[in-house]
Amino acid sequence: MSRIRKVVLAYSGGLDTSVILKWLQDVYGCEVVTFTADIGQGEELAPARRKAKMFGVKQIFIEDLREEFVRDFVFPMFRANAVYEGEYLLGTSVARPLIAKRLVELAKKTGADAISHGATGKGNDQVRFELGAYALMPDVKIIAPWREWDLLSREKLLAYAGRHGIPVDYKKKGGAPYSMDANLLHISYEGGILEDPDYEPEESMWRITVSPRKAPNRPEYVELAYRNGDIVAINGRKMTPARALARLNQLGGRHGIGRLDLVENRYVGMKSRGCYETPGGTIMLKAHRAMESITLDREVLALKDDLMPRYARLIYNGYWFSPERRLLQALIDESQKTVNGVVRVKLYKGTVMTVGRASRADSLFDPAIATFEDDKGAYNQADAAGFIRLNALRMRIAAKLKNRK
Q: 182-296+339-358: what fold?
């Protein structure tokens, strides 16, 4: 422990990381550098600075990473249409590699010996933070207090905070019935009363989406413009990646879009129940697939769909910086060069429906061939007979063999 002189802590200013800050100072006797990332969690970050100063932290880094988060992590993931276990849009998973990246960069910048995080020994986040850090700084030392200390309950954390004069938000002192984690892509809820997978969460839990029952009675149409697979404008207005996602969150939230109640399989081996709100991401996934439907070749689409579950698992399990994820990303990005055009979606009572898609330069949809009317020789329907017989050949051979037995 004495060999650790300085550590960079991923610091939110909440109960857990505030206790960790003091614990690192006491147990390791080291200088603590705090790093707080603004990735769109919607919380005031000034209290984190004040708390850090209260405990003698000299180097405090609070950074607005919203644009980098969406541009370099969220958008690349949505080019792949990544969904984990058929439903989860990976809102927490995709945020962790960015935080790991900045922890390592700040460790190098400040000459720190180690980095530290507040993820528990039961969760996925410890894996994501640490795999990311090791990929970028192979010899980095990592301190994970939840795997070392005996403060394994909220009561013990509050008692430690009381002994050491660590301020605790009075409103939160009684403890929420679940834990929350937010960023610009989503809000997640887990733990506490949600640990019973048969318990329906109360309506008041949801923060950024209205109940579909209370959503407007009239649908709203939204037009998304795409270039190389990424949204560049909404309703004709050009937007940066973070602004585009924030706007879609507003639109989707207003119409009750993006709620999910899921039991998922954690990488560490256990099943976990989580609830998620991802209004903007839900719209993005629907619209992106619609844009690809007219601009990508059939077999390219099929290959992407085959690879998507593998890609999603890599992100969920913490392998963002792995060579295999980078390789898949290069293939995916190559496919997106023709994903250009406009998609119109209709938002109504918790649903997203594609109602139009167009691409002037890159559409593979040929009305002359696709029509059910007279195509004037563009497609010879008689060709279909040979096509069908050839594709049925193996089944015909097997059926004849079966009939002879």
A: Argininosuccinate synthetase, chain A, domain 2 (3.90.1260)
